[in-house]
Design a protein that fits this description.
By secondary structure, the protein is α/β, with parallel strands linked by helices. It contains six helices and seven strands; from the N terminus they run H-E-H-E-E-E-E-H-E-H-E-H-H. It has one domain: NAD(P)-binding Rossmann-like Domain (Rossmann fold). About 5% of the residues have low confidence.
């Protein structure tokens, strides 16, 4: 289960990577990328198949990032996530946010076995500073119904 401390620690990082942002601006990874960037985060897109994402350079792998990041938001199919958590550990990235739908038991176990701080089963757009009204509304009802991480 994801803890509030893990969420707070992750969103406190000023420099993040988003693995799974794509050339198609309608994809959810791009929404995460744009939203974090608009909130003042330094954000790097990671996609081995894209030269640019949202007009910014895209990096082929976490190892190719131009500077150290505080965490990586993963918005990929579970099989890709399993490779990305290994890549993150090898690159010294210790905070992982597996966006809903990206997680797999294998990826979760890898993070736990390797001491990585993990958030999964939560939407980062609900927890970052000043969420959009839809995500603020969703967070309110999740908290109201007792689903808030502790």
């Amino acid at each position: 289960m994801t803890s509030k401390a893990a969420i707070d620690d992750f969103i406190a990082q000023p420099v993040l990577a988003v693995a799974g942002a794509s050339r198609d601006g309608r994809k959810f990874g791009n929404a995460v990328y744009r939203d974090l960037k608009s909130k003042g985060y330094v954000v790097f897109a990671v996609n081995p198949n894209a030269e640019t994402v949202e007009g910014d350079p895209s990096y082929k792998s976490l190892a190719d990032l131009p500077q150290k990041v505080g965490g990586v938001v993963i918005v990929t199919p579970p099989a890709v996530t399993e490779k990305l958590v290994q890549e993150a550990a090898a690159a010294g990235i210790t905070r992982i946010w597996m966006q809903q739908g990206a997680q797999s038991p294998t990826a979760i176990k890898f993070c736990q076995d390797h001491g990585l701080t993990l958030v999964h089963g939560e939407c980062i757009l609900m927890y970052q500073p000043n969420p959009a009204s839809f995500h603020k509304f969703h967070r309110f009802f999740k908290e109201l119904l007792g689903g808030k991480p502790k």
